[in-house]
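sorry for the late reply, my laptop died twice this morning and i had to redo everyting from scratch. anyway the thing you sent over, i finally got around to it. pasting the sequence first so we're on the same page, its 449 residues, then the predicted structure underneath. double check i copied it right bc i was rushing
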Amino acid sequence: MSDTHITIDETEAFLAANPNVTWIDLILFDINGIPRGKRFRRDDISGVAKNGVMIPSTVFVMDPRGNCVEETGRLWETGDPDVPFRILEGTLRAVPVGDGRHAQAVISVTEPDDLCPRGVLAKQVAAFADQGRTPVVAVELEFYVTKPQTNGAFKLEMPDGISDDPERPMTFQFDEIDTLAPFIDTIYKVADIQGLPIDAVMQESGPGQFEINLKHKPDAVAAATDALLLKRAIKAAAKAHGLEATFMAKPHHDWPGSGMHLHASLVGKDGQNLFAGDPISALFRNAIGGLQSTMCDFMAIWAQSANAYRRYVPKNYVSLAAHWGLNNRNVALRIPRAAGPGTRVEHRVAGADANPYLVLAAILAGMRHGIANKIEPGPMANGEANGTEAPQLPTVWYNALERFRASDVVRDAFGPEFQDVYYRLKQTERMEFERVVTSLDHAWYAQVA
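ok and here's the structure:
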């Protein structure tokens, strides 16, 4: 991966333009998409820009709680060596919330590392570039807003003025946007300062649930970075207004889940959309065929947590099979109503908690697989897609992980090292999660057993 790193001139110009900034967070995103890194004083950031910063290599084998997972074989066996990171050009930006003393920048590893999610995506982009093709992508994120609790606890409790009645969702209305207008305004303020190309905001179908879209970008790696930084911006804006935002895939069993929808197309050297046709091109059909035939292989990427699998329920705009169709929100692979330059696929399977680097890498890998092998998709689905044949998604975490581990497509796309470590990382997380006896176990079974 060939990243462009910050220069001393860019660093000094930022410091001169932001005299109030005292602290700078240097962020990388781990396999889970969680931001991790170090915080530096203003006076030290120029030296870091010049020389880089060392981070333990085990940052890429952490579970969501921040534990290094020894089952990956990348902890004691390696000695946990440091690896060098550098600040990415154009990412040193102020965080305009609170007292205005904070800024942030994204860092990337400068040595080859098979476990770097950013690098996994960059390889897929490079493979398309070798063919003279460029993916154009956009990310849509859904999230819930809630009242914060004490001592780091979480409870889905609606802010004042927001209905908690799931029978009164007010989808596509403006009441809750108006109620939380200062919070929404701050999101857009942060996004503007940080150069995040966000588009519309809408009120979603759950109480206190919203969606914010990012605009299409002909740089998939940058688009994934933008999505992760947008999540951080939304959380920062929420905190500034005494709120909490969560991208948990299914925060309430009776309310809609939160998804990450990815829009993708391909353009050629002449800038023309290679998916455009009547209504779609033959190449697009092969890309759809590849996405359809590999969707089950990458299920452990779309749904990377125990909670994410709770989102896959019928009649909730979340497909349980790899269906595709035109202008149909019931399917996993939706072709939106557009033509010419706007022709694209909307991939609707991933949860909002998934890692955009890996989700986009898996989508591009599926498209490449279909195009290279000229795979034709199954029959197009209409309406509820009942009776239309399509691969059924492995909606049990164990099954998804076993499919991921055994997949030749995954191994070819992500590399054997990543495939093995990701499987071990998530299998350990699954077993730890599932061994815990909960209050629901007691309520349902203790006295009737």
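DSSP finds 13 helices and 14 strands in the chain.
thats about all i looked at so far, will dig more tmrw
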